Amino acid sequence: MAIEHEPGSARAAPLEITVVGAGILGLWQALTLARAGHRVRLVERSKTPFAESASRFAGAMLAPGCESETAPEISTLGARGLALWRDTYPRLVNAGSLVVAAPRDHAEAAHFARVTSPPLTLGPDALASLEPDLAGRFSEAFYFPGEAHMATPDALSFLLDATETAGATLELGAAWTTPSAADVVVDCRGMSAAHDLPNLRGVRGERLLLRTHEVRLARPVRLLHPRHPLYVVPWGDGRFVVGATVIESEDQGAITVRSALELLGAAYALHPAFAEAEILETGAGIRPAFPDNLPHAEIRDGGRRILVNGAHRNGFLLAPVLAEAVSDYLANQTPHELLVFSEPLAHAPRSG
Ligand SMILES: Cc1cc2nc3c(=O)[nH]c(=O)nc-3n(C[C@H](O)[C@H](O)[C@H](O)COP(=O)(O)OP(=O)(O)OC[C@H]3O[C@@H](n4cnc5c(N)ncnc54)[C@H](O)[C@@H]3O)c2cc1C
Question: Which ligand 1 atom minimizes the distance to the CA of 313?
Fold first, then answer.
């Protein structure tokens, strides 16, 4: 099908776009493309939103500084992701993140500081005034004041509503199969796309949701550790996500006893009052990842099929960046470092 400009218009004509998968990547794609004026259909195989997604297990921290430990590119890409979230989601918590280590783990702290260059290092007094509940527990902390976090269920629901408000139609309980009559299919099926993406692997992440009113934290706290690094993310109302394991496995089973013990032990090390917390939920999700642990949008079939995947630990952080990259590509064939072409750029679905 030829996709044409409106006569005399500098803009490409609106496209019929099917976005497959309503995880965090699909939601951001559908929202951004609908807001750009395209006719968007968001197709999700589960009947209940997010029930079969990895996204519902996320923390969800927007932490480009902390996460640059694994890939330096995340720092600049993530800064754009943060800006797009701030423009879109009013309940984002802009309180930064903290990173601490027990004195015996000073080697991990030194390595982390070398790789991520934290903007601020806090002594005990500054840490106590920022997070009073951590007073006297750690002799120093790294502080990334520009980072943010959110409560995952609220953020996912917000994006789903915003997508429909922007004009996209939502089809739940509809498993997408090829071929498609749409001009463009944006495939955000997560691990279900592995058959079409031979480099994709799954990285298991387990986490707990706890509730206690005995611990008060305003921002995510990461605890460095040689074997069991952990984070605690405050979701409000006394809820805390404690995560997450990083296991090279695609096992979809429930959290193991070993992982639960490690996470709970680390939470207790961060603050002993977690011992009295209720365990509200356990969960394990499979993070889709490429070998470089960075996501990309692969442009196939002359731009008629775009596979967006591989977000690994940064699906929330980088979903808006991927969506902007795809939208700009469809409008103007704009290149972007997260776009990968399996065919020459000249075959893109745009005339003129
Ligand atoms: C424990 C844990 C903690 C995490 N913490 C963070 C964090 O703090 N910050 C951060 O940025 N990231 C975090 N992540 C990473 C993030 O959650 C992932 O990168 C992200 O969820 C991947 O999203 P996705 O949209 O690619 O996949 P998914 O969320 O799995 O979505 C794919 C969707 O496609 C649907 N689907 C599949 N096949 C079909 C089909 N044929 N037709 C229709 N629909 C289909 C599925 O049902 C699913 O809803 C974390 C991950 C885990 C596991």
Answer: 15
Crossing angle between the packed helical segments 24-35 and 152-165, to the nearest 10 degrees: 30
| Amino acid present at 246 | V
Structure confidence at residue 177 (pLDDT):
87
Q: Judge if 310 and 337 occupy the same domain.
A: yes
Q: 266 and 170, same structural domain?
A: no
The response to whether residue 24 sits with its C-beta less than 6 Å from ligand 1 reads yes
Same domain as 269, residue 220: yes
Number of domain units in the chain? 2
Residues 335 and 205 grouped into a single domain: no
Both 205 and 258 in one domain: the answer is yes
Residue 6 in this model has a pLDDT that exceeds 50: no
Q: Could you read off the pLDDT of 27-48 as tens digits, one per residue? A: 999 999 999 999 999 999 999 9
Query: In terms of DSSP bridges, do strands 169-172 and 39-44 run parallel, antiparallel, or are they unpaired?
Result: parallel
The residue-averaged pLDDT of 158-171 equals 98
Given the CA of residue 25, which atom of ligand 1 is nearest to it?
Answer: 25
Q: Could you tell me if 173 and 117 lie in one domain? A: no
Residues spanned by the domain of 305: 16-56+152-199+292-347
Residue 284 makes CB contacts below 8 A (sequence gap 6+) with 57, 204, 205, 206, 207, 251, 252, 253, 254, 255
Q: What is the pTM of this model?
A: 0.94
- Where does residue 237 fall: left (phi above 0), alpha (psi -120 to 50 degrees), or beta otherwise? left
- Which 3 state secondary structure label does DSSP give 346? helix
Quick: pLDDT tens for 211-227: 999 999 999 999 999 88
Quick check: CB of 151 below 6 Å from ligand 1?
Answer: no
